[in-house]
Amino acid sequence: MYPDSLKNLIESFQNFPGIGEKTAERMAFSVLGFDEEKFAMLEENLQAVKDNIHPCEICNTLTDKDKCSICESTQRDKETICVVEDSKIVFLFERLGTYKGLYHVINGLISPLDDVNPEDIGLDKLLDRIKNKKIKEVILAFKPSVEGEITALYIKKILEGLDVIVSRLASGVPIGADMEYIDTLTLERALEDRKEIV
Amino acid sequence: MYPDSLKNLIESFQNFPGIGEKTAERMAFSVLGFDEEKFAMLEENLQAVKDNIHPCEICNTLTDKDKCSICESTQRDKETICVVEDSKIVFLFERLGTYKGLYHVINGLISPLDDVNPEDIGLDKLLDRIKNKKIKEVILAFKPSVEGEITALYIKKILEGLDVIVSRLASGVPIGADMEYIDTLTLERALEDRKEIV
After folding, report:
1. Quick check: B88 contacting A, CB < 8 Å?
2. B174 to B83, B89, B139, B143, B185: CA distances (angstroms)
3. Is the pLDDT confidence value at A197 over 80?
4. Percentage above 70 pLDDT, chain A
5. Average pLDDT, chain A
6. How many alpha carbons lie under 13 Å from residue B42 in its C-beta half-sphere?
7. A94, B17: Cβ pair inside 8 Å?
8. Mean pLDDT computed over every residue of chain B
């Protein structure tokens, strides 16, 4: 129905996460309406991301410099590292604006079922950093899942003997949630981790 | 918060219709995950749309040939033209698969408030075509709005004296709609255009 080039672009757009057929069609049609400048800008921005963005040499957070702005900052608490499974999570935490420590992005979570083993997710670099940089606390901010648990336990184990606190994010009832819709695992964890009201 | 190139790409994606901040972020991150081939394909498809897609020389429907596949087809009823305000509407009708006539895409609707006048929307080409190609029926498929009405009445007027039927899409209650939520204009039109049950 569509001319080939238009059909191909619609398919390209549908490859993006969260983009359905309708949206991909609207996007492709809007490309047709782009003037030279807007079109050049889109191509340039795509190319720049491809060319310039890479992991920070210290913490692996995506950056366009050698070291990311968080590692370079003099305002951060250099003794605390929050370990996350993906750069996206760093930006999520930064949006909060309340966390003042550093980050370390590992290469996903250990997942025996998908054949992702401890040696695949770059824990050496994390371990070196914790040992050499006098880190006092390591916060493991993985998603509450089997893979998150396995990875957290594994990191806890390889840090044994070092003078470092290993913590994890609190799990529990999300703010605003309806109690009757909370799944049993979450409820179990919320009960287990209950805090005294003081 | 984001590195500059990533921020720029997110902004580029947000320029597309229907793409909010969250989706634009997910899209930009997914570009980072593209391998060389997938990235080249996206750039190629963008460029191809920019380079190859243009209006059909007969009916203005977007195409990558001189004439669109509908104008070139020998299976269509060459005596009926459906006039639409945008190529998108052609593809919408084609999806139905029930309309067998030809199309003509005009350059938007007459809108005195936006300073879009009859001479701005390419009616000469339409008029020439109707005169020279022995067209028997012209279906005006504009959206039911003030601009749609003005444009339809104007076209009806310039076709006066020609041996051609000018029709418009039926307006009325949409299938599946709840009667109590129908706006008064639609209801008025539905009543006016009521059809005898035979």
Report:
1. yes
2. 21, 18, 20, 14, 13
3. no
4. 100
5. 91
6. 24
7. no
8. 91
A94: chain B residues, CB-CB within 8 Å: 1
Q: Which of A1, A46, A95 sits opposite B91 (nearest CB)?
A: A1
Interface probe, candidates A15, A29, A87, chain B, greatest B C-beta count within 10 A: A29
Pick the closest to residue A44 from A56, A58, A34, A29 (CA basis).
A34
Q: Tell me what ipTM this predicted complex has.
A: 0.76
- Find the range with the poorest average confidence among A36-50, A91-105, B163-177, B180-194: B180-194
How many residues comprise chain A? 198
- Per the listing, tokens 């491809």 go with A50
Q: Give chain B's length.
A: 198
Is residue B198 helix, strand or coil? coil
A54-55 and A62-63: which strand pairing?
Answer: antiparallel
Nearest CA of chain B to the CA of A17: how many Å? 6
> Among residues A138, A62, A72, A67, which one has the least CA distance to residue A107?
A62
Which runs of E-coded beta strand occur in A33-191?
Answer: 54-55, 62-63, 80-84, 102-105, 137-140, 165-168
Residue pointed to by tokens 């996460």: A17
